[in-house]
Structure formats: C-alpha cells, structure tokens
Amino acid sequence: MKLELGKIKISDVQFGDKTKIENGTLYVNAKELSELVCKDDRIIDCRIELAHPGESCRITPVKDVIEPRVKISGPGCVFPGVMGKVTEVGQGVTYCMDGACVITVGKIVGFQEGVIDMSGIAADYCPFSKTQNVCVVIEPKEGLETHDYENAGRMAGLNAAAYLAEALRDQTPDETIVYETKPLFQQAAEYPDLPKVGYIHMLQSQGLLHDTYYYGVDAKQFVPTLMYPTEIFDGAITSGNCVAPCDKVTTYHHLHNPVIEDLYKQHGKTLNFMGVILTNENVFLMDKERHSDMVSKLCEYIGLDGVLLTEEGYGNPDTDLMMNCKKTTKRGVKVVIITDEFPGRDGKSYSLADVCEEADTMISCGNGNVVIHFPPMDRLIGTTDYIEMQIGGWVGCKYDDGSFDAEIQIIIASTIANGFNKLCARGY
Amino acid sequence: MTVPKGKQTQSELEVRREETMKAEYLLITNNPKAAEVYKDNVLIGVEFLESGSYLDVLLCTRDRIHRGWHLLTHPQASNLKPNQCPYKTVLITNGRAAQEFARDIELIENAVEAHSKFTRGMKLPRWTDRVLRDFMTVDLSVVQSALESSLLKQIMSSHI
Hints:
The structure holds two protein chains of two kinds. By secondary structure, chain A is of the alpha/beta class. Chain A has helices spanning 30-38, 146-165, 184-190, 230-233, 251-255, 258-266, 285-301, 316-330; strands at residues 2-9, 12-15, 20-22, 25-28, 43-51, 57-60, 62-66, 69-73, 92-98, 100-105, 116-117, 132-140, 175-180, 196-204, 210-214, 217-218, 225-227, 237-241, 272-281, 306-310, 334-341, 362-367, 371-374, 379-382, 404-407. Chain A is globular and about 55 Å long. Chain A starts with a strand and ends in a 21-residue tail after the last strand. Chain B is 48% helix and 11% strand. In chain B, β1, α2 and β2 (44-48) form a beta-alpha-beta unit.
C-alpha cells in the first residue's frame, strides 16, 4: 500500500471573508465555520479564536487537536467511518496542513482536560505552542447526557478539520513524502538481510472519555489486527480519549504517529518495517489475556525479529503493556517499550503501575509528576476556572494573578508515550 | 439479565441467585450510580461502601481476594489516577479466575501503592455535585465496558 502525503506549509492563520490558503497563510471564515459546528443541536454556541506561536495566550480545557487533511486521490476519505463511508484508506494522495491545527476547547465533564500555553516555560513542553491554531470553543446544551456531549465535542473538532481541509484542494504541496508497505511476503523479500521490525500500537479503550476509534469503531470491540501503516496517515484512527492530557494521544498524534514515521525513515536502511499490530486496552482481565496472546501470536506469525511497543495512559494500560511485552518476548521477538513515567511528586515510587522481567529495554518520554509554574497570560481561550480540578492541578495551586503551579501532566502531550515530545531521548 | 425494579423483593432475588448460579459476581463500589444500576441485578451482587473512599474499595477488594475471590476487572481501571476521581468500582467473582492468585494480589497491591503515591500530601479538590455526578458516570462506564465484553457475558451466562 502506497501513500503520497503532500504537505502544504502554513506559516500564519488569520480571519478572512473566505476560507482559503494564500502564500502560506490560512484564512478562516469564522462565521461559516461556527455555523457549521452549531448545526449540531447539542451545541448551543461556538466561538472561533486564533492562537499563534509566541503569543501570551493560554488555551484550556482542550479536548482534541486535529490536523486538517484531505484525500486528493485514492479510495475513501480522511477519518473513514466517521466523516464518510467505511472505505479502506492509506493509498493514493493526501494533502495535509503542515503547521496548522484545529483545537477543540470547552467544558468537558467533571474533570477538565489540558492546557496549551503559546509562550513561556510551559510552551516548550507542548508541540501545539508551535502551530497556528484554530480554536473551536464550544458550549454544550444544558443538561446534555455525558456520552452525548463527549460525542458532540469530538465531532465538532472533526467537522471543523474537514471544513478547513477543503482549502487544501487547490494547493501545490511544498513537500511530498511517499510511504509504502508491501504485502507481507513481498515486504519480507524486499530487504531480506535487514531485521524485520513491527510496531504494536495499543489504543485506549476503557469506556467514556477513554475510547479510541478505528474506522469509526470503538477499539474495545475489535480483536488485535494487522494494519498497513499508511492507513493511520489518512485518519483511520481518531481519538475519543480525554483523560490525562500529558499522554493523551490526540487525533493529531495519530495522524503524526512518530513511531511509524521514524520506522519509515529507517525502512530499507537499518530495518525492514513490516507493519502495525493494532490492539486495545480493555478492562476485563480475560480480554487482556486473550488480546495479548493474539498480539504475541501475530508477531511470531508474521516473522518479526523485533517490535516497538507503545501504550496510551497509565495504570490499567501498564498491565496490557507488560503482558504484550512478556508474551511477545517469550515467542522470541525482541521488544522495546516506549512510555512515560509517573513516579510520584517525590520521584520515589515505581514509574509504572505494572512490571515484568522481560521489560528490559524501555525508552522514557519523561516524568509527568514534575511541577512547574505557569505564568499569567494576556489572553485566555476557554477558562481556567477548573485548573484546581484539572489533572495535574491541586487545591490551592492557582494564584490571583492568573498564574498557577501544576504538574506537567496538565499540559497536552507533554510526556506523550509515543515520543512525540521533547523529553525523550532523541538522535539528531 | 437485569430484573426490573419493584418486580421482586430482595429475598426473592437472593433465592433466585442461589437457584440459578454456581458462581457469584460482585461489584465492590463506592459509586452510588453503579450501586443503583446493579442493585437489582440477578447475576451481579453489589457491596456498596456508601461512605467509603477510593482506597476503601481497594482494601475491601484485597480482603475479598484473600478470602478466595478473584479479580475480573483491573483495579486501576481507566487512566484516571486515584486523586483524580473519588469513585472506584471493581468486579470480582468466586467462580472462574481470570489469572493466578499471586497475580491478583500483585495487581491489587500495585493499585493500593499507586493510590498512596498519588495522594501523598495532596488535598482532594472540592468537587461540586455536578462534577461528582460526571465522575460517577465515567467510573460506571469503565466497569460497564468490562461487563459488555462478549467473553464475560458468555462466562456469566454459563454460570462458571
């Protein structure tokens, strides 16, 4: 399966009468976009705000971040099963808005998610302080059922991204990257002397605000399966997870999965990238047992020499992580774990909630319990009313001048457990 | 599976449980919403720790495991850490175990240790009633995601 990803670089975002891209600037017709989002009668108000890198601006609570992409040729649409038919994606030509994002902002439920600072110390921890952001600030209808509201918030972001992505159609990419993975036997034969490497991609799937969707299907409802890596670049996976900002894999992160991108960079040079094994993180212990058996079986069956393994979340998923690691190692496949750490404020506790002997090689993406000071900002998109209740905050962490102290786990993607951050070891 | 409210008295329910089941399933919870939803369920009993804390639920679960019960759901279910949600619901059984006893103990002890690590020196936020209701919904949703598992449904229907 072969996909050409055309990148249209966006260096600025401004409001305009017509939504379009001109000389690297994205112009947004805010009225049109807002009306589109408000077509969902579960949302009573939608305000569009723009945030640029370097501004004294704070965005919170953040639900999801999405990069606008559009299918130019090839089957299906971006976000299949959600924004269109359930047609297999991952081949043909796709354009993306390189450097611009949709950020869905607004009250979520009980606990509130995530902070993005566009400047200051906290900005360095977050990739979205470096992007041109179109913030979709939504207000739900009073009394909306929790699951309904989660769905409305998720769809608002995806709808906004699909709307903006239409502006990509008449553009010429500044850069095109070609990704290709062949059917299994052909792929194995292409680089017979290189180690065959795969990627076990664990998706959060534990209930309300803990879910991920593959072709629109709740990930807890599938069994582990093989995926062509290119499918992910067309939005085959969307995020419905809204718990723990620091290691939340937003839809943007799925589109930009750094493990897949980096494995492709090494493909044919130091390794033979065979494909992705997609699995879930379920709550019922026998499902964990069954699915980790299936994951390790697939690794053996397709003849992998080694795998990279990532999770989403902390606690329960650590058990899936260890079961996948243990069983896959026992079948003779080398495993490298990528994850983040939560050793407590004093750093004296175990970093993960579970462990096994076979987990002997791990890449850390940082410690989410580190505390920093968030300075006051001139502009606020959303609200900081809930900072003390947001994950990483605590009672008394907020000051009168608008500043606050919090663990870096309050920052969107600060320790994201797939390495799309600056706290991991990285080769330059 | 769920008996409509008001159709049977508690004692009738208990008799029916004894008649129809070999294995028992039990939700240990401090979540009023979970207790309400499952209070009349024929297959699943509820041990409702009405004024109990998150930690109390873990400790009660640990006690039950030492008395021969088995974990069916992961005690750290969900990505919400102990100081981030006041409610906890765990499903256990005295029927077929999901894993070895030693592993059950390891998971529940890890959960107790994680609770201590994340709450040490921290004050719980002053959550409003509305926020607490949302937390109840999220906690319930997590345990329901296990109860909706096709495998668990089959096991429960087979009374094993």
